Amino acid sequence: MVIPNGVDTKHFSPCKRSARARILSELFPETSPDAIFLVGAAGNLRPIKSYHIFLETAAALRHLPHMRFVLWGEGEERVALTQLAQRLGLADRLRMPGWINKIDEALAACDCFVHTSQSESFGMAVAEAMASGVAVIAFATGGLVELIEDGKSGFLVSENRASVFARTIEFLVHHSHLKDSIASAARLRIDQEFSLRGMVQQHLQIYRSILEDAS
Questions:
Q1: Residue 215 binned pLDDT confidence (cut-offs 50, 70, 90)
Q2: What CA–CA distance (Å, rounded) separates 131 from 75?
Q3: DSSP codes, 124-153
């Protein structure tokens, strides 16, 4: 029996979006929060996460002036990614603030969450973003294909390329009702299938079964 990881749906919740204006003002003080479409990513800055694709995606969408991008996390790739951001000319639209204490508020502040990892056994950051009521776009790998219902509770892309992510993000920008529908479905999926509460109940069920068999 396989029991998937569970997300604390009280901690990661759409209600945390109330902090959006403050978070955006801290990240991009020169731009009104109401004018921003925020694309986020979060994780360890390691080569397998392919965050260079996230930065290249930001560059590919420079024709949309209201787009902003933020990458939360730390790791060995920080220097290389910072240098790439400079070469791509992303100083005005990308922030890499490192780890933050209130990632729940940060995720809920996003309009879209992008996950470019080459390999994922489950994808906890993706699950937490979905629980936060955010539309997710991820490379179809590992456990993500079980976590996300493509086109319903998120989007799975078959090619891990910036142009593919950029096209999908721009589609959501121009179809806000679909973005909101995807975000709501993502929250519902985590609450029903991948919640911390559900994970605990499944473990207890196994223990009960073992005890019954042993008695």
A1: confident
A2: 25
A3: HHHHHHHHTT-EEEEE--TTHHHH--BTTT
